[in-house]
Amino acid sequence: MSLPNCPKCQSEYTYQDGDLLICPECAHEWKEGEQAEAEAGAIIKDANGNVLADGDTVTVIKDLKIKGSSSVVKVGTKVKNIRLLPEASDGHDIDCKVDGIGAIKLKSEYVKKA
């Protein structure tokens, strides 16, 4: 019987303790059925329904005001090399750097894959 890789760090050295699976490298613990749920929840899609991945280039589809600043990210701004944040609780699931503004977080519903 082969145990699945860790859903958090993809380590192949998982082991079973009772009904839990444990990763010795990142100390993540989960039940075997939860792995599929975690992987399904990690899919982030753009405004058109395209699946996004780390390193993608996206285009902003709406003027976005930056909270606490007078800056605005304009429609059509290309953002390169995004990083996805699947466990974001506030809905901002893309971490990126925008030229002229700096590091910000975006919601995937306001971007489309370029």
TrEMBL record:
Residues 2-30 form the Protein YjdM N-terminal domain. It comes from the Bacteria. InterPro entries: YjdM (IPR004624), YjdM_C (IPR013988), YjdM_N (IPR013987). Residues 44-114 form the Protein YjdM C-terminal domain. Gene3D superfamilies: 2.20.25.10, SH3 Domains. Coiled coil: none annotated. Belongs to the YjdM family. This is Protein YjdM. The lineage of its organism: Bacteria, Pseudomonadati, Pseudomonadota, Gammaproteobacteria, Moraxellales.
